[in-house]
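Lecture 7 notes: from sequence to structure.

We start with a single chain of 149 residues. Read the sequence below before looking at the structure.
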Amino acid sequence: MAQIVRGSDLMLFDGTTNKAFAFATNHTLELSGDVLETSSKDSGKWKSNQITKLSWTITSENLYSEEDYDDLVEKMIARDEFDVIFAIAGNADSDAGVPEGGWTPKANSGYKGKAVITSISVSAQDGQNATYSVNLQGTGALEKITASV
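Now the structure, written as tokens:
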């Protein structure tokens, strides 16, 4: 039977270090496809379409950590492409918060690919926790992970 995954267990990792994006509050993975209309006289009153190119993006919202924010800003300024993993944490459900050694991606789970940072913003509202948002654009295939990372 399928198991429902809690949002707190699905995380974004730097695929080079397998380190989770720190203090995350929300991650969003979006896949989209370009549509090519293939209608003809045989289509009748309904349009026909096919998907041509696929693309993917990830948005991550996090509480501000100077070290993590600075690392991402440096990657964006350098226009570096880097590996990302979007997966369930293999050591999820820790009642004590971050496990010793940090979160790790679950083996044989999730998706991986290369991405570039297309935008990063920080918000520092008076009396609130500072936060940042980062948008990643995939540069090539998003692949299902079928082995340990």
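The mean pLDDT is 91. Keep this in mind for problem set 3.
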